[in-house]
Design a protein that fits this description.
Helix 3 packs across helix 9, helix 7 crosses helix 8 and helix 8 packs antiparallel against helix 16. The chain is built from 16 helices and 12 strands. It is α/β, with parallel strands linked by helices and about 525 residues long. The chain folds into 2 domains: about 250 residues, no CATH class; about 260 residues, Nitrilase/N-carbamoyl-D-aminoacid amidohydrolase, CATH 3.60.110.
Length: about 525
């Protein structure tokens, strides 16, 4: 292994560029739909050795000394994000005549921007770099900090944070309830990078056992939660039957004629009215995916009547729809990506609007400037969507309270705030048909499951093309529909949480982990300097 480490450390030129990109790309094998988490050990071991060899001239300025490490991290990140996010280009091909020109921006441009965070992480780590275990502590702390920054800066985009490579199955998700995905990210980098110590024979006696201990604790805690803790008592109340409707509507049909929109609406109604299979109970709650209603519902009384005719008196429908808000004479309406709760009489009894919109998809940053160049939203909505100021809990008849998240809102750990302590479950509706049969929907679903574990809340997730599922608070799938499957499922969720459940301060633990890792890196760095002097 020492010989391999030496070869990687000394690699130069185009071979170094290729190896850094390849190291990042290999890490994507740890993510869905593959879930081969061991690939991250290869990725980060190579990254440590590449940073070891990222040397600058002896007379270089601070920036000059950090630049080789930044470039190494950027190349690593570019490989990681191209391999992990290439499927975003699929959304542009729904209306290829309009947006195909932007395909290189989606496949290469966004990864190039996101890779800056990894470049900054490796540059920051280089400041604390030493010969021993401290350098992997520095790398872990720096990646944890910059992944957190990626989740909050410029509206945030924490998709495929490194920690998701350590959470392929429920056994390996449970630590998220204590330290969150960002805490898992920081400690995962330490674990993934530990084999690099074996190649340089410095710090291995301490770093490898600590990494093994952390990994064992991660698995042990998961086993304890899933198998060692007492199960909560089964409620004496009958759990509601939830029907998830997965219509599998082709995305291009949603933007075509009124006839297509009417057919889409009728398909949702038909699946909702189907008799339960195997003589089961009728559903109490029916869920439709994001923007399932393909017109402004409040302008169409006939549609509300059709919904009332389909539902029994004691049933409720939860449906994604576009909500229009009249802004007065002479002003265009505002549009919101919304969720409606509709009772058996066809009355809208609750609603919630999306708070965290998708840039360039649902709204256009710097709209007036970009419109000058003919750049428009992917979603055809005059002026784009507006963001809600606050998130509203959805209270259903019977008192069940749902925390609503539309589409990619669920990838943000920071969205789990406000009234979530009063929720009984998370509701996530989405439309991943934009991305076809690519890794995107699988990655999205995994991140939704981790949110359930983090918050300790069960998850009700419904997607136009999938993956639709009921998930308990441990990330385990109770029932689900596969990607691109048309149909519905009826199931009960017995793990609803009583409103007012205590929240664990995961962010506090994350920052304590960061402080500890940086302290180890600093102590190692100072010891390294003193030894040299």
């Amino acid at each position: 292994m020492e010989r391999l480490a030496d070869r990687v450390i000394l690699v130069w030129g185009y071979k170094r560029v290729f190896l850094a990109i390849l190291a990042g790309a290999l890490g994507v094998l740890a993510l869905p739909p593959f879930g081969f988490f061991a690939a991250m050990f290869v990725s980060f071991t190579l990254l440590v050795w590449l940073i070891d060899g990222a040397a600058a001239g002896p007379n270089s300025s601070l920036l000059g000394r950090l630049w080789p490490s930044f470039v190494t991290g950027w190349l690593f990140g570019f490989g990681y994000f191209v391999a992990g996010l290439w499927w975003l280009g699929h959304a542009l091909m729904v209306d290829a005549e309009e947006f195909a020109w932007a395909l290189p921006l989606a496949i290469f441009g966004l990864p190039a921007v996101l890779a800056i965070f990894y470049g900054l992480a490796t540059a920051l780590a280089r400041i604390f770099w030493s010969d021993g275990v401290g350098r992997i502590a520095a790398l872990a702390a720096s990646f944890g900090l910059l992944e957190w920054a990626r989740s909050v800066l410029f509206t945030g985009f924490p998709w495929n944070a490194i920690g998701y490579g350590m959470t392929p199955v429920p056994l390996m998700m449970q630590s998220a309830h204590v330290i969150g995905i960002m805490g898992i990210t920081a400690l995962s980098v330490f674990i993934f990078a530990a084999p690099a110590l074996l190649g340089t024979k410095q710090g291995a006696k301490i770093g490898v056992p600590v990494a093994l201990l952390l990994f064992a604790a991660h698995l042990g805690y998961g086993a304890y939660v899933l198998h060692g803790t007492p199960k909560p008592p089964v409620s004496t109340q009958k759990s509601p039957v939830i029907r998830l409707v997965q219509p599998m509507i082709d995305q291009s049909a949603k933007i075509d004629s009124d006839a297509d929109r009417a057919a889409i609406f009728e398909k949702h109604l038909k699946l909702s009215a189907e008799a339960p299979r195997d003589g089961g109970r009728k559903p109490d709650i029916i869920v439709w995916p994001e923007t399932a209603i393909p017109f402004i519902l409040t302008d169409n009384q006939d549609a509300l009547t059709r919904i009332a005719d389909t539902l029994d008196d004691n049933q409720v429908l939860i449906a994604g729809a576009v909500r229009a808000e009249d802004m007065g004479p002479g002003n265009p309406p505002r549009y919101y990506n919304s969720i409606y709760v509709i009772d058996g009489r066809g009355q809208i009894i609750a609603a919630s609007d999306k708070v965290h919109l998708v840039p360039f998809g649902e709204y256009m940053p710097f709209e007036s400037v970009l419109n000058e160049f003919g750049i428009q939203n992917i979603v055809e909505m005059p002026g784009g969507f507006s963001a809600a100021a606050t998130r509203q809990l959805l209270t259903l008849p019977g008192g069940l309270k749902l925390y609503p998240l539309v589409c990619y809102e669920i990838i943000f750990p920071g969205e789990m705030t406000g009234d979530i302590g009063g929720a009984s479950a998370i509701l996530n509706i989405t439309n991943d048909a934009w991305f076809g049969a690519t890794p995107g929907p699988y990655q999205h679903f995994q991140q939704a499951r981790v949110r359930a574990v983090e918050t300790g809340l069960p998850l009700i997730r419904d997607g136009n093309s999938g993956i639709s599922a009921l998930v308990n608070q441990h990330g385990e799938i109770i029932a689900g529909l596969a990607l691109n499957e048309t149909g519905f499922l009826d199931a009960t969720l017995d793990s609803f949480v009583a409103p007012g459940h205590p929240a664990v301060s995961r962010e506090t633990y994350f920052w304590l982990i960061e402080i500890l890792l940086f302290a180890i890196a600093m102590a190692s760095r100072l010891g390294f300097v003193f030894k040299r002097n």
